[in-house]
Write a structure and sequence with these properties.
It contains nine helices and seven strands; from the N terminus they run E-H-H-H-H-H-E-H-E-H-E-H-E-E-E-H. It has about 260 residues and is an alpha/beta fold. It folds into two domains: about 160 residues, Rossmann fold (3-Layer(aba) Sandwich), CATH 3.40.50; about 80 residues, DNA polymerase, domain 1, CATH 1.10.150. A seven-stranded mixed beta sheet has the order 3-2-1-4-5-6-7, with helices on both faces. It binds xylulose-1,5-bisphosphate and magnesium ion (MG).
Length: about 260
């Protein structure tokens, strides 16, 4: 039996804070990875990140940081130009160009249930925000080409990329959102897909719901209040990986309220 409907007025829960990559959309394997490879090719480099290699590189968040990690851990320094790390910002700008172009083709859709949940949350008066490691232009491009250009304004804060000095797993980006919204952690809930993501959200004391993907299915989500394979739709139920959904079959605001109220 579902719990009674609660509006944000009589609920402590005020805001939903969404991660982007892997949570709103499966952008990593067929989006960011492709764009990195296109940038390497454009610059005449012989780097190529396979699906498997990219999975290892995802240990580090942030595209510039990921390229530095690749140089330090995957390549033989003797064969590299000395100034290779100085080239990274330029290479990354090219990658962003390729990535936003790819998104503009509509090739990367939102994950099941994402649009429905965002619309339901708006109708019920929850405040929305984004806390992501990716570059701001990438968020704008994803939202514009999936939910329409107006959707940028549905989010009160879009915290992205270098706006904080330490990226996920540091809690800084979530803390930044809370500060901007003048909300405390117990008035919000976070949506994540990865271990670095949940370390960041839990580090900011946020209850967190996880939707896994192929790259993150074996991550440690012990601290999540619910772990699902996807948000799901009425006609496309989620599979529960960990937690209790009160007999719900897709993630909606009623279930989120229940999860937010229950301690874990
Ligand atoms: C996303 C990231 C980002 C993207 C690439 O992590 O780690 O680095 O992979 O984006 P999260 P940029 O979902 O935890 O925010 O190249 O723009 O950095
Ligand atoms: Mg993510």
């Amino acid at each position: 039996m579902a719990a009674p409907f609660m509006t944000p007025k009589n609920s402590k829960l005020k805001a939903f804070i969404f991660d982007v990559d892997g949570t709103l959309s499966n952008t990593e394997r067929d989006g960011h990875r492709i764009a990195f490879n296109q940038a390497f090719e454009e610059y005449g480099m012989d780097w190529h990140w396979s699906v498997e290699t990219y999975g290892k590189l995802l240990a580090v968040t942030g595209g510039k940081e990921r390229m530095k990690f690749y140089v330090d851990n995957f390549l033989n320094k003797d064969n590299l130009p000395e100034d290779i790390k100085e080239k990274i910002p330029e290479l990354h700008a090219a990658k962003t160009r390729h990535y936003t172009k790819l998104l503009s083709t509509g090739a990367i859709p939102l994950r099941p249930g994402v649009e429905r949940l965002i619309q339901e949350a708006r109708q019920r008066g929850y405040r929305l925000a984004i806390a992501t490691t990716t570059t701001p232009e990438n968020v704008t491009a994803l939202l514009t080409h999936t939910l329409g250009v107006d959707s940028i304004n549905w989010f009160e804060v879009i915290a992205a990329g270098d706006v904080v000095p330490s990226k996920k797993p540091a809690p800084d980006i979530y803390q930044y959102v809370l500060d901007k919204m003048h909300l405390s952690a117990d008035e919000c809930i976070a949506f994540e897909d990865s271990e670095n993501g949940i370390k960041s959200s839990i580090g900011a004391n946020l209850k967190t719901i996880i939707t896994i993907n192929d790259y993150t299915e074996n991550h440690n989500f012990t601290d999540a209040c619910l772990v699902l394979d996807q948000m799901g739709e009425p006609e496309q139920p989620f599979s529960i990986i960990a937690g209790n959904t009160n007999s719900a079959t897709y993630l909606n605001c009623d279930l989120i309220e229940i999860l937010h109220q229950s301690s874990h």
